[in-house]
Amino acid sequence: MDLENKTIIVTGATSGIGLSLSEQLAEQGANLVLISRNKEKLADITDRLMSKHRINCWYFPYDLTNTEGIPTLIEQVLIKTKQIDGIINNAGFGLFAYAADTSAEITEKMFRLNVLAIIELNRVLLPHLRTRTSAQIVNIASFAGKIATPKASTYASTKSAVIGYSNALRLELKKLPVQVMTVNLGPVKTAFFTEADQSGSYQDQVAAIMLDPDRVSQKIIQHLFTKKREINLPGWMSIGTSLYHLAPSLFETIMARQFDKK
Predict the structure, then answer these.
(1) Which is the catalytic residue, given 155, 165, 202, 244?
(2) Gene3D superfamilies, alphabetically (predicted)?
């Protein structure tokens, strides 16, 4: 797919996968709308991408946990850009803690950012996306949404919600030129773990299998504006989820030591 003249929203655009996506999309000529909380980082990234590539790039500092203001945000985006061809819902966070130790405030914040913001962004954008000849919604989920593990009850439930929502949305839009793709990932080398794994022990134990965010971004961009339903990285984890659903009790017994690494 030629991405020139396509305008794509990227949330969580100032670090990790969001930053990598922004850089690679700009290289391929896509116009960008970057959303994150950090105004200074957004401004720096926007200036750099526009000076390096012949693209249009707009930035909107916004805290997506404020879901009530998302309609106004998207209204401002469309006034500036005139058209949106796709959105990559990348913003999210996690915290590794037992369910009994996870506060109501953290649970609400996680659901607001990881789930409700995605649903609201897509809802508000859909009337516009339906008018495009080809449009794309990408929702970043996780293998945690397919196989829940200890100390990830809230995070896993948010990602499970994203997967279920994405599957239903895909079916609702099957007669329209709006593609819905879910991305399920294992551990990725990003700042996500700075907050999620404050002890640093889990990062150390899974360092050897962590995904490169540039590789993840490349795979996502490769399948934009196609009928690709899901991207699952790494592939061997996808095999694990299939085995889990065939024999969950046995799988949990065999993988108990691995599950308890958090």
Answers:
(1) 155
(2) NAD(P)-binding Rossmann-like Domain
Is 244 part of the annotated catalytic residue set?
A: no
In a domain, 84, yes or no: yes
Tens digits of residue pLDDT in 25-58:
999 999 999 999 999 999 999 999 999 999 999 9
Own/partner pairs, 239-243, CB within 8 angstroms, 24+ separation:
240/143, 240/147, 241/143, 241/146, 241/147
Q: How many domains does the chain contain in total?
A: 1
CATH of the domain at 191: 3.40.50.720
Q: Which of 216, 237, 238, 236 is nearest to 140 (CA)?
A: 216
Lowest mean pLDDT among 2-6, 11-15, 162-166: 2-6
Helix (H) or strand (E) run with residue 8 in it: strand 7-11
Residue 1 lies in a domain: no
Where are the alpha helices (H) located in the chain, listed in sequence order? 16-27, 39-52, 70-81, 104-111, 117-129, 153-172, 192-196, 201-206, 213-222, 235-246, 248-254, 256-259
